[in-house]
Amino acid sequence: MASLTRVAKERRPQPDDDRRSEFETRVLHALEELMADGTPYTELAVQRIATASHMARSTFYRYFPDKSRLLIRMADLVTADLFAAAEHWWRADHAEARQTVVVAMTQMIAGFRRHSALLNALTEVSAYDRDVGRYWSGRVRRFRTVVCERLAAEQRSGNIDDGFDVTGTAIVLTSMVERTISVACSGQSLVDDRVLAESLGRAIWLVVYGED
Asked: Which domains, and CATH codes, for the chain?
């Protein structure tokens, strides 16, 4: 007869949220340092990333099965604040929107610039990696949905014209912001970040409300 007092076999402990967060932060810092000298993400071997993160290769693979999953998770971390700033503006009261949209653009530009190497890698890899491409298009699509919802609400309230195409305009706005910031942070901008934020903010305002 089996003993009722038998101690249950211990299960292998799983990494808790705090431990995972600390690990992911270390990997992010290591990855960005490795790319700081211009080394492309695609040329970084997993072993090199793991070593720079002070982790065994086997431990590294417990969290990231492959480099696609690694890039997706790192992108999630660094774009959270970028999208949060923009989504907050689209959901907030627009009484002071002329000023607050510039603030939102300033935050997005600053966030992208801090992580430009990683985000440029995301743009590059998403063009040919199915998983990364699906992730990024899905993330942009969720943001576009927020824009569509606000534009539709403004239309119902009579703040924008009935003939305003909500979906088409949302595509134009999200693509404009994403591409403009991406180009600026790749070293091709002819203006400083303050001017860029003001220009983007004004363009968004004019497209939506049509008044200067």
From this structure: 16-64 (1.10.10.60), 68-209 (1.10.357.10)
